[in-house]
Design goal:
By secondary structure, the chain is mostly helical. It is built from 13 helices and 4 strands. Helices cover about 35% and strands about 5% of the residues. Strand 1 and strand 2 form a beta hairpin.
């Protein structure tokens, strides 16, 4: 048992933990040291090309590490990241642009099944500039166009728009805003409230009913003034205020439909609300109430002398009643 076998190769030396590696023994005691513990759960593998990137800012590196650690479907927009970290929206947006420029982030504009255009954020653990996108076919880059710096930026495009060959390489947010349809941008922007309309002094149901009928029939005289149910309900008090001032329905209709702009009316309800308030006629002049006409009773036949006289009820005439009183 004590016999040695010199022909057996020596065993490899086990690597020491931490900074006790034999090759580092000659180094000075200054500098960084590590006290590492092996992770078994809840860890993310980050490449040194990102953690030690020489061109990215420290905020961009940290944000890139954070994005790679998030699960699929987690919110990664600027608003969510601003609520999560103390940095403001401007610094976070600049860091996202750095990651996007160096290929660690892609932002794509896609259209959902409901027709809404949303931005999809994709975090890449390898720079996309070093490898082609798996979902997009490679294209020739020998055509004249953008500079080399622009060619290195990730190309994003909406699903609908110009053909793929004619799309320009630019920031995803700008391309999404350019390719989005006009009605989609209008749907995103909050709708401006309609101008206020005058209100009648008397809230008579018949007055409002006549005003609603006038507005509902307005598009028959001018097709450009087609109103919705909500717009009609908003404008009805203004029309009722006109009708209350002894303006005929025909005059109200002519005031609303005459001299329309030649270029068309973009918001018919707002246009009509402005006209109802701006061209409101003055109240009618004061007229003293006329005296009620005298009461005219029907003719009755006298029961005594059979003569005709006016009275509310049948009976005797005045002469017969006087004779009866004298006889009594």
């Amino acid at each position: 048992m004590g016999t040695q076998h010199p022909s057996v190769p020596p065993h490899a030396q086990a690597r020491l933990a931490g900074n006790k590696h034999p090759n580092r023994a000659h180094r000075t005691t200054g500098g960084l040291r590590h006290d590492n513990t092996r992770h078994t759960t809840r860890f993310t593998v980050i490449g040194n090309h990102l953690a030690q990137h020489r061109e990215l800012s420290l905020l961009a590196i940290g944000l890139g590490v954070h994005l790679q650690s998030l699960p699929k479907g987690a919110p990664a927009d600027i608003k969510s990241l601003t609520a999560r970290f103390p940095e403001g929206a401007t610094r976070i947006a600049a860091a996202l642009r750095e990651l996007e420029l160096h290929g660690y982030l892609r932002r794509e504009c896609v259209r959902t099944s409901t027709g809404r255009i949303v931005t999809r954020t994709i975090s890449c653990n390898q720079p996309t500039a070093a490898r082609p996108h798996p979902e997009a076919p490679s294209r020739a880059v020998d055509r004249p166009g953008p500079s080399a710096a622009a060619e290195s930026q990730p190309q994003e495009a909406c699903e609908e728009g110009a053909p793929q060959q004619t799309r320009e390489r630019r920031a995803p947010q700008e391309l999404c805003e350019e390719r989005a349809p006009q009605e989609t941008r209008e749907r995103r922007a909050p709708r401006k409230p309609l101008p206020a309309v005058p209100r009648p002094a008397c809230n008579a149901p018949a007055l409002f009913h006549a005003a609603t009928d006038l507005l509902a029939d307005l598009h028959r005289h001018e097709p450009r003034l087609l109103l919705s149910t909500g717009d009609t309900a908003h404008l009805a008090p203004g029309v009722a205020a006109w009708l209350e001032r002894d303006v005929t329905p025909a005059a109200v209709r002519h005031a609303l439909t005459a001299d329309l702009p030649p270029g068309g009316v973009r918001r018919p309800a707002a246009f009509l609300a402005h006209r109802l308030a701006d061209q409101l006629p003055p109240p009618p002049p004061f007229r003293a109430p006329a005296a009620p006409p005298p009461v005219r009773h029907p003719l009755q036949n006298c029961d005594g002398c059979d003569r005709a006289f006016r009275a509310p009820h049948p009976g005797r005439c005045r002469a017969c009643r006087t004779d009866l009183q004298e006889a009594a």
